[in-house]
Amino acid sequence: MDAGSDPAGGKARTTAQRTSDRELVVTRTIDGPARLVFEAWAKPELFQRWWAPTSFGVTLISYEADVRTGGGYRLEMGHPSFDRPMVFFGKYLEVTPGARLVWTNDEGGEAGPVTTVTFEENAGATLVVVHELYPSKEALDEAVASGSTSGWGEQFEQLDELITALNAKA
Amino acid sequence: MVQLSTHLDVSFAALSDATRRGVLERLGNADASISELAATFHMTLTGMKKHVGVLEQAGLVVTEKVGRVRTCKLGRSRLTDETAWIEAYRRHWAGRFDELDKVVEELKQKELSDGRR
Known about the structure:
The structure holds two protein chains of two kinds.
Chain A: E1 15-18, E2 23-30, H1 34-42, H2 44-50, E3 59-65, E4 72-78, E5 86-96, E6 100-104, E7 114-122, E8 125-133, H3 137-147, H4 152-169
Chain B: H1 2-15, H2 18-29, E1 32-33, H3 34-40, H4 45-57, E2 61-66, E3 69-74, H5 78-114
Antiparallel strand pairs in B: 1-3, 2-3
Helix pairs in contact in B: 1-4, 3-4
């Protein structure tokens, strides 16, 4: 599917694709060596500076992580429209410094994906690949569907943006 | 890919009209008959039938005739939904990565000034 390209292009291009019934893949090149990019993911005090940008309208209330194979994490996010914070948690299945992070997303029960992030350095820049593998086609379909039930208004906004993006490319 | 872009063309053409977007919002609240929709949007039955036909062709609306009444409801245009969802997902990550850029840049500068390189 071609909708994942970023019209901005260049180095800052983020791509996203559904690569199969069960998988989503996001890629982005960061200008810096893999060990520093990894550090920004693995050190909680750095991670919480970028994981929930203010432009999302959410705030990171708390974040605890034991970034080691077998370690766990717990993240709480707040939004003016939430009654209570949204909680995200799981555990690290693999932590290979400078190369690879694998964690589970357990807040959604057994339907949650396993996220694998790899860091590949080339000429001082690092290609970051985020791979989310859902347990089944149904689980990913459900994630997509629940994202679009938040109201037609919002969906039209997204469609409008998409059309603008497609037009810019044409 | 030709099929995909044709499908997108049909979907976007269907959504390019304010009345048709209004019909989708209305059907998002509850199913409705063509005559109810015509009344809501102050249109003739024939005019509304045309709009619903365009939406139906794009898979955004499905209709079912029971007796003399044709009921309209939202269709599952999976492709359109999914394309928009993936674009929103991509933007979500793009927002994060823009901030990550800044953090990594800071770490680089700190290393330089610490004289480790």
